[in-house]
Amino acid sequence: MSTIDPSVVKAVFTLADAAIVPVLVDRLGEELGAALRSLPSVPGPLADAVRAGGDPVLVEAVEAVEARADRSDSAAVRPFAPAGFAVQAAPSIPTPADAGSHDPAPHDPVARAARAARTDLTAEELDALLDLDDPLVDARLFAGPVLDRTERARLLAGVRRDGTVGPVPTALTDLLWAAELGRCARWLAAGMASGDAEVARIVVNRLPLRTEAGRLRLILGVWARHGRDEVRRVLAEAHFPAEARAEIEEALGRHDGRAVLDARLAESEVPEHIVEFLCAGDDSEQPDRVDGILDDGGTIPWPELIRAHRTTSLPAALHARLAELPDCPNELLIALLAEGLPQSSRDDRPWLHAALAAGRLTGADVLDHARPAAVALSILAGTDGRTSPDRWASGAPRARAYLLADRHLGTDVEAWIVALRLFPDFTGTIPELLATAGAVTGDRAGAVG
Prior knowledge:
Elements: H1 6-15, H2 21-28, H3 33-38, H4 44-53, H5 56-75, H6 96-100, H7 109-116, H8 123-131, H9 135-143, H10 149-156, H11 170-178, H12 181-188, H13 197-206, H14 212-226, H15 228-237, H16 242-252, H17 257-268, H18 271-279, H19 285-295, H20 302-311, H21 316-323, H22 330-339, H23 350-358, H24 363-369, H25 373-380, H26 389-392, H27 396-408, H28 413-422, H29 430-440
Helix pairs in contact: 2-4, 7-9, 9-11, 13-15, 14-15, 14-17, 16-17, 24-27, 25-29, 27-29, 28-29
């Protein structure tokens, strides 16, 4: 057999009963050598078994790993300080939280704006600042990360905390005109239908509005709030496709034009039509269509996408982009695990690491559903260069892995060796691999519940 994958070696020898590790090392012999040299660290029972076995190739491999780790530790110990100079602690810099306890009086506009720029505001502090209805404070808050989508939409509509409505203040519109385009696009998605004339001008001058629904939301919002003349002024600055522009101009000339566009928007927002739109096109177009819907203030029809996927699997590029979204349903994430993970580059699966970090997927999900088994094991063992066993392979997932290993492999050395040798080419899940290895050597138990 070819070289055993290092991540598999580390994970398997971490799971294996310590009593059989020496026998495994002896049976595998120099087959372990290259894998050992590639490990960042060697599990204790494996290192002990190698030394006890005395195979010079394996001993040299373990010592090389340990020496490399020692050099890394030494390099990170402390910075150089010339003789005669004491290493002193860096001066303390007040954090935003420290500064907050010394904020000047709340009626001071400079102090309020400074407070609004903080990123560690409590919910009570944020509410107090929003209750001020201070245009500069609102703009500072809008530029930071603390506002949710609902508050952003309120500010973009010019709605004050007391419920009164007026033009969006200049402090906020100036921010939107000047902000970096990527940030501006994310902000404006929350207020696409606000109807504020200046916000609409910013949108049509700065954003492409890639969907029919996005264009209609904007136009109808302005029409409802300001009437036809303001729609004409906004349309004059818009870079809409010729067909979309003609449709809006025709509606402006009809007495029922607003109702016509309302019906057109409703038709474009039918969930089944959105699913059809998303699934059409090639691999490069599908992710862009997801982004276009969201950037234009639309929503993803998750129930209909799930139903569509149950009938026919979603296109791979679309599925992967949907999985990156924070509200992607667990069923679609599990389905993507089961369809197979890329073998190597961690950059090929950003959705997975984001879902694990946010708790939308768990180590147990990876253990039970991810394929191929070697990739799933590298994620659980934290040997894929991105994940951490302390976060995702502890607790229930690790306990279930031990249960599976004990039930299918136990202390049967032959079964463990079969499992090791199956990993590189096995396309199924970890439970399926362990069951197969146990069956090859005479599994002692039935299926795992």
